[in-house]
Amino acid sequence: MNPQGSPSRPMARPAPGLVAGRSPAPTMPLDASASASASASASASASASPHVRLVTWDDHPAIGGQGVYVDELRRHLAVQGIQVSTVAGRGSAAVSYHAVTGRGHLDLSLQLAWQPGLLREGNPDVLHVSAGPGGIALLRRCDRPVVVTAHHTHRQSPGWQTVRAVAGAIEAVGYRRAARVAAVSPSTAAAVVAMGVSAEQVEVIPPGVRLRTPPRRVERHPLRMAFVGRLEPAKGPLDAVAAMTAVAELVPGAHGVVVGNGSQSAAVVRAAREGGGHVTVVGRLEDDELAVELARAAVVLVPSSFEGLGMVALEAMAAGAAVVGYDVDGLHDTVGRYGIVVPAGSVKALGDAVRSLLGDVDGAASMARAAAPAVRAEWSWERCAERFAAMYREVTRC
Questions:
Q1: Are 169 and 211 spatial neighbours (Cβ–Cβ below 8 Å)?
Q2: What digits encode the pLDDT tens for the residues 71-121?
Q3: Is residue 118, in this structure, part of any structural domain at all?
């Protein structure tokens, strides 16, 4: 994935009050009272290869994990013979939506409620929604099956309790209305069930991991540390800088690098500079150079305050790096099995774990060698697409 923040190319400025994209389609009903002819048409189109419409906020080129998820799933579903179309808030399949709340995913959710014809373009047999914090909430019933991917939930996320409660209640309605909910991890599945969704309705379908090949030969540096991700509070970049700085002050030759950008970019640069230059902030990198950084790093730090799964951790392990992360939902399911987790929020514990790995080169290399093939085998996009193809056919009876 390329979960480092906004792409370097800016989006076109929208007209006042309307976010850039295609003009919204005319309003069409999409509830239980929708026309019988539309339902009949949808049933008639259902076949061994159903038409799936992906509904997402992020899309290619991705700025986060949900965008990468949609991009990879779409590509691998095509191999399965599934017809796929997409409606998105940004990227290559972006549609126009009115800026109401200032939060793109919420505003697109509202637009889809007001103009559900956007969902029905091409007369899909099933809608597949990427949901959770930062994702889409379908706010009304649909006249065709809905599959929802729960990347993570408001119940798992930090923040104000009142906001979490309101957002979680809205989110729970969407999950309960879905024909199936596909959780990306056991932790997320448990959180969905805790919202009152039937356990029989929920299935864990792990996404794949994007495998990166550096464009040139790269030697792994046994004392190199890295943080890769959006420079946002939930990802913990300042904790990563503090931990890497502390380690570098104690381990001669150790050095850290931060890859990504975001709202905390300036604070991260300042913290790295004030830490004595032991950490270099390189900003957002293109995929090839990101692959180089993952191939160079001996240890990758993932100090997130919450994750649905932790795709950065999986990509780092697949690339052959050892990983240390906070023990939170999502990371517990991944790093907890193949890396090292430490108490969430403890920068000292994070630094101590990284220092122990740098001080035991053979042990760190052994951990990484064991993790890489296991991660590649378990988190496979081919297997993920196969399972979704079967799920689509089940809910559409194709």
A1: no
A2: 999 999 999 999 999 999 999 899 999 999 998 999 999 999 999 999 999
A3: yes
Cβ-contact 134, 174 below 8 angstroms: no
Residue the block writes with tokens 């993920």:
384
pLDDT band of residue 168 (cuts 50, 70, 90) is confident
* pLDDT tens digits, 188-235: 999 999 989 999 999 999 999 988 889 899 999 999 999 999 999 999
> Are 250 and 193 within one domain?
no
Q: Cα separation of 330 and 281, whole Å?
A: 26
Q: How far apart are CA 172 and CA 154, in angstroms?
A: 10
CB-based burial of residue 32 (10 Å sphere; 0-12 exposed, 13-18 middle, 19+ buried)? exposed
Task: Provide CB contacts within 8 A for 266, sequence distance 6+.
Answer: none
**148 and 182 share one domain:** yes
Cα distances (angstroms) measured from residue 219 to each of 133, 222, 321: 38, 9, 12
Domain count across the chain: 2
Q: How many helices (H) and strands (E) does the chain have?
A: 14, 14
Structural domain span for residue 26? 18-208+380-396
Beta strands in 298-368 (DSSP E): 299-302, 322-326, 340-342
How far CA 39 is from CA of 148, 174, 189, in Å, comes to 20, 21, 31
Rounded to an integer, what distance in angstroms lies between the CA atom of residue 131 and that of residue 158?
17
Task: Say which DSSP state 233 is in.
Answer: G
Sign of dihedral through CA atoms 180, 181, 183, 188? negative
- Token pair 């270099």 is found at 280
Please indicate, yes or no, whether residues 250 and 240 belong to a single structural domain of this protein.
Answer: yes
**Looking at the structure, do residues 318 and 391 belong to the same domain, yes or no?**
no
**Do 388 and 284 share a structural domain?**
no
Domain membership of residue 71 (yes or no) is: yes
